[in-house]
Amino acid sequence: MNKFHPHFFSFKRLVTITKKEFIHIRRDKPSLVISFMLPIMMLMLFGFAVNTDVNNIDLAVYDASRTSLSRELIGSFSNSYYFTHYALVDSEVDLERLINKGEIKVGLIIPDDYAIKLKRKEPAQVQVLVDGSDPSIARTAASYSLSITAHHSTEYQVREIKRLGQDASIGSVSVSPMFLYNPTLESARFNIPGVVGLILQNITIVLTALAMVRERELGTMEQLIMTPVTSFELIVGKIIPYILIGIYDFIVVITLSYWVFGVSVAGSMFELTMLGLIFLIGALAMGMLISTFARNQAQAIQVTLAFILPSVLLSGFMFPRESMPQVIQFISNLLPITHFLIVLRGIIVKGVGLTELADATIAMLSLIGLIIFVTTIKFTKKLD
């Protein structure tokens, strides 16, 4: 029998079904927004954020020489494409404090006898302190430092030869890089803390969002609302099991990080646990917030991926934030995971405490507090 017989195919019926599907798509606002906006968002994120080039590295200087020659060297670093002059400090302790806080990646130390040695035609050496917690940035920063110093030394020698003559004895400038926190530049010490943060966030958000939406699809949420249980009791009762799951995941990941990869916690385990618990609660709140927008589990997965993707790319987990445009860096600062990764790497790798991590901790707590506030209002309204 002919498959194209009117009984089997009708252009009118095809148009009717197509119109019906367009109506469903138009009514499904979350999926509609994701379908049109997600490709644009992904293009912008991958175009701007996925950048392995390392430049604009924040640099602070301790100039004990305080001479015109030392200022010339500082200018060679500051005027390069690779470094941004962040601050001029009064001691090496101040340099290390800025590196501890994560405000700078590199510290340049110019000794007090720098100009004296050059004037005596002797080699003068400066030191560069490099934050080794991020091996890729550390290697690049050290390489840049060597290159800039060698170029500056050559320029100085050429200038002095022109002034004193070809046979004159000329001093030289060299640099000695010193890697802090991660002297062997092991990638695992940088990657593992980031994985801890992503596991706590991603698994928790996905589980919570899907569980809430599934309850709504099955109708059990409405049954609970009809009971004497209050909205607060319902919300807290729902998240407690996932808090316990998150705590289990946290303990397992931290333990395996040490047993398998040899990454131990250099700082306070108590501070790490408390901040991890707070971040976990924030991730749970984010999952619940997503569930209030999603009508079904497919939408929940779509919205969750739309949130998780930027958090992976923009948080500094994979790519250096210093190389991202200012607008993208501003957006990344709105993600709690960005600040939590700073806290994780500060405590696990650097061994610093809340004093040094105060800025990142306050930013993370503020964002989590905002998420919990919005989620509470939105979820309570949904239940009512």
UniProtKB/TrEMBL annotation:
* Signal peptide range in chain numbering: none
Any idea where the ABC transmembrane type-2 domain is? 126-383
Q: Which PANTHER family match?
A: MEMBRANE COMPONENT OF ABC TRANSPORTER YHHJ-RELATED, MULTIDRUG ABC TRANSPORTER PERMEASE YBHS-RELATED
Species the sequence originates in = Dethiosulfatibacter aminovorans DSM 17477
Q: How does it sit in the membrane?
A: Multi-pass membrane protein
| Family classification | Belongs to the ABC-2 integral membrane protein family.
Q: Name one GO cellular component term.
A: ATP-binding cassette (ABC) transporter complex
Q: Where are the transmembrane segments?
A: 32-50, 190-212, 250-270, 277-294, 300-320, 327-348, 360-379
Q: Does the keyword Ion transport apply?
A: no
Q: Could you tell me which InterPro entries the record lists for this protein? A: ABC-2_transporter_component, ABC2_TM, ABC2_TM_bact-type, ABC_2_transport
Q: What is this protein called?
A: Transport permease protein
What Gene Ontology molecular function terms does this protein carry? Answer: ABC-type transporter activity
Q: Which Pfam families match?
A: ABC2_membrane_3
Subcellular location(s) of the protein? Cell membrane
Q: Which domain of life is it from?
A: Bacteria
Q: Give UniProt keywords alphabetically.
A: Cell membrane, Membrane, Transmembrane, Transmembrane helix, Transport
Q: Extract the PROSITE patterns matched here.
A: ABC_TM2
